[in-house]
From TrEMBL:
GO CC annotation: cytosol
The protein, known as: Protein-lysine N-methyltransferase EFM6
Database matches in SUPFAM superfamilies: S-adenosyl-L-methionine-dependent methyltransferases
EC number annotated for this UniProt entry: 2.1.1.-
UniProt keyword list: Cytoplasm, Methyltransferase, S-adenosyl-L-methionine, Transferase
Record has Acetylation as a keyword: no
Annotated organism of origin: Zasmidium cellare ATCC 36951
């Protein structure tokens, strides 16, 4: 199912489709695991997961899907791109790209203040101090001075809290320049998530990613992967 199909889909009531994020498993003990994106990442990423400071402290399915897609299809493009990840949590996608693509520019992984320590730990675990920088970037706030206008924006599982939708939209407007592509992967949990999709489509050119061989399987889980770009002439 594509994003367009999803928009016209009827049937689900306005309520919750899934509470997996709302009721995150806060009792899960902190641990470190090796993530190799089904063999696409050598060496694997060492990812510390710790939910003490928020639900971004674990790898979410949309982050795994986005990371795998980028490693499979976009290595060359990413090598030459300046990259900013939004709502990075522990830094899953940005760190994976730093290990797998070795971009020429520093990769900026960003999130709110409570996630900074975990991002720093994961940078250190993987010896990426020279390749990745963690920063506080609260959606809706001006772009921090050390964050460049990027060629590529990464955002995985950032659509889940309705009051944050306009803030995220504002940040996409601030970051997506005429030559920027945002790789955006999200899980639709509530019908309200489509309000965000509609608002993004009004403002940007949104296209389904069509070259991911895994897409049929994750669309069954209501996970969608698309690109977001500036509309021509804007
Ligand atoms: C579900 S987690 C996804 C984490 C990671 N991208 C992944 O896929 O594993 C959503 C992330 O968005 C971040 N976030 C939520 N609201 C935010 C805001 N207003 N500004 C910046 N980050 C925010 C959270 O802190 C959290 O780390």
């Amino acid at each position: 199912m594509s994003l367009s199909d999803l928009e016209s889909e009827k049937g689900d009531a306005d309520g919750l489709l899934s509470e997996d994020l709302v009721q995150s498993p806060t009792h899960k003990a902190a641990s470190t695991k090796a993530v190799d994106f089904d063999g696409l990442l050598t060496p694997p990423l060492l990812l510390r997961e710790d939910l003490t400071s928020g639900n971004g402290g674990q790898a979410w399915p949309a982050g795994m899907i986005l990371g795998k897609y980028l490693l499979r299809r976009k290595r060359d493009e990413l090598q030459d791109s300046s990259i900013v990840e939004l709502g990075a949590g522990g830094g899953l996608c940005g760190l994976a790209i730093a290990v797998g693509c070795r971009p020429k520019d520093v990769v900026h992984i960003t999130d709110q203040q409570p996630m900074q320590a975990l991002m720093q730990q994961n940078i250190a675990h993987n010896n990426l101090q020279d390749a990745v920088k963690a920063s506080v970037y609260d959606w809706g706030n001006p772009r921090p001075q050390d964050i460049p206008q990027p060629d590529v924006v990464l955002a995985a599982d950032c659509v889940y809290f309705e009051p944050a939708f306009p803030l995220l939209l504002q940040t996409l407007q601030d970051l997506i320049g005429p030559n920027t592509v945002c790789y955006f992967c999200f899980k639709r949990r509530r019908r309200a998530d489509m309000h965000f999709v509609k608002a993004v489509k009004k403002m940007f050119l949104v296209e389904d990613v069509t070259d991911d061989p895994d897409s049929a399987s994750y669309s069954w889980e209501n996970i969608f992967l698309c690109t977001i770009k500036r509309k021509p002439g804007r």
